[in-house]
Amino acid sequence: MKFYQAALFAAISALAAPQKMAPSRVLYFLDSNPGGASIIAVPVNQDGSLKDSTSAVRTKTGGIGQIAKDMNGTVTDSVIVKGNQLFTVNAGSNSVSRFYISETDPLHPMPLGEPVSSGGDFPNSVAYSDKHKIACVTNTGVKPGVQCFKAPECGVLEPMGDLMPLPVNQTTPPVGPVNTVSDIVFNPSETALFVSVKGDGKGLGYLYAYRVTDGVIDPEPVVSRPPELKVDFSLTFFSDESAVMTDAAYGASYLSIAKDLTATVSKKIDIPGQGATCWSVYSPASDSVYVLDVLSPNVTTLDPKSGEIKFVIPGDKRNKGSVDALVDRSSLYVLQATPAIATFNIGDSKNGSNMPVLSQYLDLSNDDLSLPKATVQKIVGEILPPQGGVAFAKEARDLLIECCVEFITLISSEANEISEKEAKKTIACDHITKALEQLGFSDYVPAVLEAAAEHKEVQKGREKKADKFANSGMSMEELARLQEEQFAQARQRHT
Description:
2 domains; Histone, subunit A; globular; Methylamine Dehydrogenase, Chain H; 34% strand; alpha+beta; five-stranded antiparallel β-sheet
C-alpha cells in the first residue's frame, strides 16, 4: 500500500476542467487476484479521510496474481511508488509491471510497456532507487532470487545481470510463512540494497545486503544472521546505520548496520500477546514506530530510540488483523486482513501524552459488488420520464443497487465456472456471453458485446498514451516543465 502525492498547480482547477476534481493524494494497493492482478487507487480527502469505496479505481497490471499457501501475508512492498512511477509484481505470471502516474489523473496509472519477466518464480516484493534508476524484485518460488532492472525514465525495464540466488527451498506457489522472502528495500542513501529472508522454523533468518556503486549492484552479498532473527519480516530504516526489523516469532528488533553492511541486533523487543508481528512503518513527525500484527487489529507504537512500547492503539473489532501500513501527514493508514482500510489520527501523539485514535474504517468488502453513483443515476434517468416530476426514493435506489449486484454476482459465478471448465485462468468476454445464454439472458448479449468493443477502444487509447510517453524521449522532469509552460501560456490567454 503506497501513496502518491500529486503535484499541485494553481492553474489546474481554473484552466483544466476535466482535472479540477482530480484528488491531490491517492492511496494504492495491490489486488493479487489469480483472475488478473489490479492496482486499486483510493482517493484521499484534504482532511486525510478516505473517500467511499465506490470512488476507488481499479487498473489492471497486465499480469496474473497468486496467493501463497497457508499464509495471510508473507511480504511487504509488493507495490511501491516513487515520484511519478509505480512498480508492482505479478506473482502468478512471474512478472513486474511499471506505471506512470499523471499529476492530473493519479487515479488512472498508465502502464509503461508490457510486464517484464521477474527472472524467477513467484515475485513478491519490489524496490526502486530513484538515485540510480534501478528497480529490483525478489522471487520466492521454485526459482528464488533477486533480479534487478535498469529503469530509464523513457522506455521499458531492462534486466541487469543474472538472477542473484537466495537461500529459499520452496514450491510455486510457496508454502509459508517460514522459509520465504519477506522484503526488499534500498537504504536511505541508496548505497545498498537489503533483502530479508525468514528462517525455516528451525534455523535463523537472513539479511542480505548488496552494495550499489554508480548504478551497479554488486552480486556478492553481505549476509548477516543475528541469533535474534527467527521469522524476520519487514525492514524499515531510521538511517543508514539503524533500522527496525519485525519478527513474527516475538515482535521486533532494532538493528545496527555497520559500514561493511553487516547487521547486529541492538535491542530485541518482545511484544506481549503478539500473534505474528509482520509490518512496520516509521513516522519521524510523530517520533514513533508503528508495528502491525496479522492476527490483531491493534497497532503497537514503539519509541524509535529506546524501543519501549508507547501505546497499544485499539483497532476496529470487525477486523482480524493488519497486513500493511503507511503514514502520511497526521494519518496512519492500515490495510486490514479483511477487505478494509483503517485510518488512525496520529497528529497529537508525539509528546506521548495523547494516544492515537481510530478515525475511520473504510469497508472494501463490497467494492467489487457495488455501483458507482454516476451509473446509478444513469439507470434512474433511463427509468424515469424526462419531465415527469417523479423522484427516486433512497429505498428504491438501494433496492436497484442490490438487484444489480445480485445479477452481476449470478453472471460472474456462472462465467467463472465456464472458465474453470476450459482451464482458463482469466474470465474472458466469451465466458460472460456464454453465461448469459445459459442462464436465459440471450437478449443481453448484443449489448454486452457492444460495451466490450467500446472498452477495448478506450484501452487502446490509454495504451497509446502510455506508448507515446514511453517513446517520447522526454524525461518526467521535461514533461513536467512542458506542462508548467503550457499552464502559464493558458493563464496569459485568460487574463
